[in-house]
Fold this protein.
Amino acid sequence: MSVTALIGAQWGDEGKGHIADQLAAQSAIVARYNGGDNAGHTITIGRTLVRTHLIPAGAFHQHVINVLGPGMVINLKSLAREVDDLNSHGANLTPDRLKLDSAAHLLLPGHIALDGADEAQLGADAIGTTRRGIGPAYTDKMARIGVRAGAMTDSHLFSDLVRGHVERVNVRLTRDYGRSPLDPEAIATEYVELARRFTPHLEDTTSLIHATLERGEQVLAEGAQGTLLDIDHGTYPYVTSSSTITGGVLTGLGVGPKHVKRVVGVAKAFCSRVGAGPFPTELHGDEALRLRGTGANPWDEYGSTTGRPRRTGWLDLVALKYAARINGLTELVVTKLDVLTGINPIPVCIAYSCCEAPLTNFPTNLTTLTCCEPIYSELPGWEQDISGVRRIEDLPLAARVYLLQIETFTGVKVSHVSVGPDRSQIFEV
Ligand code: IMP
């Protein structure tokens, strides 16, 4: 069988959770390939809301093996908290059901301290990171001084590596930032304990995935963040530090392109972004608030990792077409269509004007992108409540025209639409 890639097609927070849940049910493995605990999903278990940051969408599907792949950076403290929390709701994340790849990098306390210090230093130019240490962890990986999960098997070596990490970070914290040093001994002791706990979860997950594919079973590669936050193809430097796109599935899990048969992009019916950086269709004031919601329910546009209000704006079809191209999307899932109910007409961005010149391709150059003004096409809105709709033919004509415009512009079929926060409020087209 094959790998299905599930990719955020905008700036993250596209509402990947429901479709991830559906696809997980059909998979033997659900594997995260990028990022760390900067991601956030909200899962509803009965009436309880559970938040996940590291653990893939297969947590509550008992037949699924959940993989934290080689491309990730893993904070063991967060992982311990999350496993305990999910297990208390019945997830049963034993070493058989949760696998950490030995080549995945560990995100250690010094990375978190540096993320905070770097951001504070940048002042008004800060990226607006989640301050989870993601950038510094990937920096160490690329500088070839990171600590990989496989090192957990040897307590002495592991303790030395963690101590070495803290001592290295302390030089920067004290010398460059005038901050207090971290305690290498206390951190090494704490991490040796965490390593004992998670060593039984270690696995060569690339071999596991290939064996699963050879048995004819399905693998879901679950993306975190979104295309426009990709380190290479996003709005650099206002990006995360990993490969969020389909290419990241290949390097982050160790599978070849021939295995990835289905690439599902998830896009909201409008746009949102957390943190700083260009956002051509951004709205302000009441219009922004209308799309964001007040925060009274978990579906509103507030970060599930940091709680920050998300910036909101109209659907940017230029950016979505770019995401379709660089990911090789084979289908699109459009989420939160219900949020547009009552807005008439609905503007969608179909081109940019940059220094008076029209631009139809998404520019990743920061200077160009910053001066882009959106050119809108106005589509008719609808008034009917669509939250109960479960078939495409029951949507108002204007809502179907909206979806058709997305398909025509991006060249990608819309396969699913979501019309509300409940698991049942997503339907196949
Ligand atoms: P970092 O990944 O914490 O380094 O943050 C870099 C940028 O990515 C910031 O703009 C964050 O707000 C954004 N970001 C990171 N993770 C997510 C996510 O899961 N959803 C949306 N934005 C994210």
User: Anything to note?
Assistant: The radius of gyration is 22 Å.
